[in-house]
Amino acid sequence: MAPLVKEISAALLWHFDEAGWNVLGYQYAEGRHADYTPGSPDLDRLVQLMDALSEITVPDDPGPFKRAEDRWKPYLDDPDSASVFAGPVLTHSDWTPDNVLVSPHRAWLIDWAWPTLGAAWTDPACWVLRLMASGGHTAPQAEQQASRLPAFKNADPAHIDLFAAANVRLWEEITQSSTSTWTKTVAQAAQSWSAYRQAANCPSRHSSRSPGAD
To answer: Which residues have a Cβ under 8 Å from the Cβ of 107 and sit 6 or more positions away?
Structure first.
């Protein structure tokens, strides 16, 4: 894992196993956590990080990476529909501001607890939730930022709808076992995002006929 992301993450310097623990030592990365609020210059750094991550080539035998279709299919009415999340792209999938360190000259992506192989648009989609939950973006604002990544901009809207709906159930499940404020905030963001997408796809209730057409 570490060799694949050495250009965007702190380098792994050493590791060993002891008493059932896998101990890792990383290069010190100086920086502050990213600011996700609207208008933050850090958002440009995030786009650059995701763009660089999307260019990383994963070996033909990727090893024990999680698969996007497996991670989200338990939260769909039709588990087989999760196949639209599948893909060969290495994604981080946990774009909380705490996992991005920003220094004056660069940004680092850290804490690879959930490396996942999936469609290229799934990482920007994960970012949408964090922009809403951690940065105070509205759903349209968050999607506007994510659309700076071509993979998200060009993705099938129906696939993103499905992903948004799956995350509502995922975060509802998480809140059942966690009382922390941040999990509730992300759960609320997931509900708002999915509701926005559902509303955006509803046929207009307004007649297109002009007044006096009769």
So the answer is: 31, 34, 42, 45, 46, 48, 49, 100, 101
- With a cut of 80, say whether residue 97 has pLDDT above it: yes
What percentage of the chain reaches a pLDDT higher than 70?
94
Q: Are β-strands 107-109 and 66-67 bridged in parallel, bridged antiparallel, or unpaired? A: unpaired
The CATH number linked to 96 is 3.90.1200.10
26 located within any domain: no
Residue type, 185: T
Give the Cα separation of 118 and 124 in Å (integer). 12
Is residue 151 assigned to a domain? yes
| Tokens of residue 203, six digits | 């046929």
How many domains is the chain partitioned into structurally?
Answer: 1
What's the whole-model pTM score? 0.89
